Amino acid sequence: MQQNRSVAIQIWIIGALAPAALFFVGDFGKHDFALLWAAAKLLLSGNAESIYSPGLAQVLADGWDWGAAAVFPYPPHALFFFLPFALVPYIPAYLVWNAATAAFFVWTARPFLPERFPPVLTILTPAALTCFDFGQTGFLMGGLWFMAFRGKWWAVAFLTFKPHLGFLSILSLRGRKSLMLVVALSLALVVASGIFLGWRLWPAFIEQAIGHGERVGSTKRWLFAGVAPAMAYGFVGWVPFALAGALMLARKVNIFTAATASFLISPFGFHYDMTVASLGFGVLIFNSWNRMPMHHRIPIALGFLSPAIALVGAWWIPPLLLWSLWTQIKYDFEPPSR
């Protein structure tokens, strides 16, 4: 166990280097969270029609050039998560958002961690550190993913804010009643967003989502962030990875194999979304490294490091994740009882 822990710490340090370097050399304050905060700010100021328009982040002023990509990327009911943070200035909102969602992630992950696993490592994986840097939703999504696999059906409904990655959380449901409750709550969230935020947001979101899908299919290389097959190889290249990922997942479904497979089955996803997947490989390193042969250690370590490897090109990640998933399903996983 001591050797496992030593190796885990070394691999964690290696995985932290690239995200940490980007955080310190990047432009502090220019994060993806700016788009989320700005969308909520526009809604509160009565300018909801601008949320799905290019140039959204101009509300931040300061002369930042976000280009045409600056649009709110989530469905309207996701705004319920961000509205409270728009009540305070941007930098405090960014810091509180990171702190609150990271704490939620750590708390929800604890039942799935091995004994003596240092909780701080939960938020020091490459994906977690990248999520901190971008101010992204990876901790929120990951926390809801953990809750879903603890049998909390409402978490599956809340994961509809990021449906392209959250849909596999349906595997966590226990029975038809839970599925019906998820459908009912999801519809209630849509209706609530229409009533309280405005129905006009939904057509704008659908139009934006279709345009985003077209960009994913036509853009072969999403440098520095993309990890899903369609983002590296287009939609034609996505199909074989999605099929292979689904077939492998069918052999063993648990919280971590489903998280890994989601980045093969979904047409698009980013390195900061991989908080649960990266932690799953880290748990395996921490718990099973000593009994792994070398041909298992290599793909598991690469799977853990894949959010950092994505910084040198999206096309590397789908084959690595497929290899990592092939290895991951060979090891039993039962969350410790707590």
Automatic annotation (TrEMBL):
Subcellular location(s) of the protein: Cell membrane
- InterPro entries documented for this protein: GT87 (IPR018584)
UniProt keywords (A-Z) are:
Cell membrane, Membrane, Transferase, Transmembrane, Transmembrane helix
Describe its membrane topology.
Multi-pass membrane protein
Q: Where are the transmembrane segments?
A: 7-26, 81-108, 120-147, 153-173, 180-202, 222-249, 261-286, 298-323
Task: Give the top-rank taxon of the lineage listed in the UniProt record for this protein.
Answer: Bacteria
User: Which family does the UniProt entry place this protein in?
Assistant: Belongs to the glycosyltransferase 87 family.
Protein name according to UniProt: DUF2029 domain-containing protein
Q: Which organism is it from?
A: Sphingomonas caseinilyticus
